[in-house]
Amino acid sequence: MCIFLPPKGCCYGNVRRSMVIDLESLHKDGVQDVFVFCNHSELKMCHADDLLYGYDRRGFKVHYYPIANDQTMSVSKCVPILCEIESCLRAGHKIILQCVDGLGKSCTVAGALWLFLDKHVTPLVVMETLCQLRGPMAIARVKHYNYLNDFRKNAALVLSPT
Description:
It is a single chain. This protein has a four-stranded parallel β-sheet, sandwiched between helices. The chain has a two-stranded antiparallel ribbon with strand order 2-3. The protein has one domain (30-159): Protein-Tyrosine Phosphatase, Chain A, CATH 3.90.190.10. A hairpin with a 2-residue loop joins β2 and β3. It is globular. The termini are far apart. It is an alpha/beta fold. Helix content is 51%, strand content 13%.
């Protein structure tokens, strides 16, 4: 599940965002773990400097792995995070994968997770499905497309005993 991180107090149509209400909604939905990929400058830009504290205060387990703007995470850093996500899912936890717009970073991690867990799915199916679920911008950058296409090969290098 990917969510959009709107600035506090901003308005989308007739909807004004409230961090308190959003966190309460996630809590009521049974979310237990939040994997945040926003970096500090993105949180500041969205006027959500205290988001990580808000998650923690509300009782969510926060897994903070900032990814620099316009970058992808190295596969060697991604694989342990995917193992952590898998562990949460196997324990029956509901999780959130969060970046600023719910696209790009979080969709790339979600795609990598799917490729990591299901050895039979192809990168193309993963990307097409993410674009169907999140819209055409889910995997819009060439670097995210290449990352997912090469993920299994690169993950095998990380996971192979040396």
